[in-house]
Amino acid sequence: MIKQDAAVTYDCLIIGAGVVGSAIARELSRYCLNIGVLEKEPDVCCETSARNSGVLHAGFNNKPGSLMARFCVEGNRMFDQVAKELDIPYKRTGKLIVGFNEDDRKRLEQMKATGDKNGVPGLELIDKERIHEIAPLVGGEFAMWSPSTAILDPFQYTVGMAENAAKNGVSFFFSHEVTAIETDENGIYTVETTKGSFRSRWIVNSAGLGSAKISTMLGIDEYTIYPCRGEYFILDQKVGPMLPVPAYPVPNPKEGGLGIHLTPSIDGNVFIGPSSEYIDADDDYSVTQHTMDLLIKDGSRIFPYLKRESFIRNFAGIRPKLAPKEEGGYHDFVIERRDDIAPHAVNLVGIESPGLTSAVPISKEVVRLIEEVEPLKPNPDFDPIRRRVETFRDKTPDEQAELIRKNPDYGDVICRCENITRAEILSAIHNPLGVHTVTGVKYRCRAMMGRCQGGYCQAKIAELLMQETKTAKEDLRYCRDDGWMFTGDVRTKVKTI
Description:
This protein is α+β, with helices and mostly antiparallel strands. Helices cover 29% and strands 21% of the residues. Strands 1, 2, 9, 10, 11, 12, 19 and 20 form an 8-stranded mixed β-sheet that branches. Helix 1 (19-28) runs parallel beside helix 8.
């Protein structure tokens, strides 16, 4: 984080540092602009961008002609290049959408027709025999096969976008929640936050779950976000080889989601979920016994090999929906410039799934809307390349020995479940964005994501964080500003006489 200067007037302030806000920051850094990003949480990737299935969608679920459809297909098509530039782990596994009865067959036929209209490549309807060729343990009488669907690491994707933006001059301000926005007679915005004020010529609202609130602050008060919670189970990596591709049911369009499905992660785990439940609060990440039981029941229909011994964690994510509960389904992305109300502002509201897939095309659309008003000068020093720190667990023994020779910290394994070394954890602690939370380390190097979920290594990682950042134990946070790791000592020393 770079300390703000009250005298500075930014060319553009982006509100929100999820995957879309970080992608916009990176795209704008291609131009000669002074850019700042305001994020209410202590890190990028703390909310919707971190709490999802990690799927690069193909674009067959979205209404033809919609922004959702267009940007999803474009985002899928261009992802190979983006992943190469940002060093993002991903795999084009393909995806099965399985059906069991004639109603399912009709919906699959409609889904394929929608995908064909949207330009999704390679869609085909397949029989039970072909399902078992692709994924022998997946149930279903027939399916639609989508070969262009992929799985990716959503943490690395968001962090990679943000780190590359920072490399190209963008300033990130974490724990800066926006509380008010005003304009002066010259059209300059003053943005008040919980940690000071900022001035800017342009505002981009990419606040996700808070996007309707920011829109109202801009004077555009016609939107309401309806939080919709989806709960997940995570299965142990030993299940991963049994499910080589994501397997989805035929979705019910009224439910506003894709149904409870099973998705392998890029690291070998399997996700079951999400459920779909409208809730009142946009920060209620609770998980419920009723929904957990439902996940197992519905997931077993597609993949009848689920065992409770394989379940290692559950979590929830929240989608920022524009469609209310009584309506269900989806509303299209809102990506607009309303010059009559908020000149020099680009307003993004309701960016739900497939927002992860659509992030780069959305960022290009934001640039296009700005360029309609003023020309942007290309940044001759823009560098699109970002590289992750070398990982230890996926190297050959000879390669591991060479890493240890160059840096002995690679020889000290801290997270034994995931084989994450001290070198990788230290690199995560000293990340380019200046983030010092426990999940900031977790999302960057995958420590604490294994079978024991940090039971062995979390205390050691907390100790390293405190040592390396000179942070007192009472000030160390897990993920959010109100998420204290410690409140004091459990045991005190006894003075002997």
